[in-house]
Amino acid sequence: MQSTAAQRPAAAPGAVTQSEIDQRVFDLYDEYCHGAIDRREFLARAAALGAAGLVMAQALLPRYARAQTISVADPRIRAQYVSYSSPGGNSGTMRGYLVQPTGRGPFPAVVVIHENRGLNPYIEDVARRAAVEGFLALAPDGLAPVGGYPGNDDDGRKLQAGLDQAKLRTDMLNSARFVKSHEQSTGRLGATGFCWGGGTTNYLAVALGTGLHAAVPFYGAAAETASVPQIKAPLLIHYAENDPRINSMWPAFEAALTAAGVAYEAHVYPGTQHGFHNNSTPRYDAVAAKLAWERTVAFFGKHLV
Known about the structure:
The protein is α/β, with parallel strands linked by helices and about 300 residues long. It contains eleven helices and nine strands.
């Protein structure tokens, strides 16, 4: 896994910067984000670290309005919500955010998989970023069967945890197939995702086999070792340095990828936290996020265009 140097400190969208936050608060936030503790306990345990702990904890909560980089009205894209069939999923029907470049298609397709809280504004923005780069982007909302993303991450996290997880993955698989076969798609398909979506990107690489042409998981759980030989798409894998839960899976994953002859490239970004690409909180690292996204776009350009 290749380390990539980056300048510090990195920019962050709030008044408190990444370099000012105690690593113990970052660790608590990671527990909170992954459902080990609720918001009340996260804030209480951060406050117990000292007077500044609560301020740090509150700064880490997402501020999506500040994080938008591509406007819905950007003339380079056309965005809409679409519904489509999802046999074997949580309800049989799915809804997603479809964004295509303006101009004449078809375009190579990319499915953008959200974190463990549904299709929030950050992921919609990532779909728009992909469309600006010339890709037909679909960001499915795994919470569609229970009414969709509820407007806040706490409720979204609870809703997603309450779904049948195997059926939720089937909904993501059907979403990938939907955008691949869309009339504006060339049939070349890429997948990317973040956190839970990163792990699901690895799952899609297994499930789709030769039907997927490039996969870019961001700090996602590794695919099951026994299933790695089913991966046929090249992988570009992004890791944060300070992410022991995810990084502990890498040695076995790397060994399995090598043994199976899967083409892969992996990068770890020094000084970064899990979630460094998400620009709605101070976990965001502007330098690392920019580099990782540039690599992602280039990787998709190489394998999908």
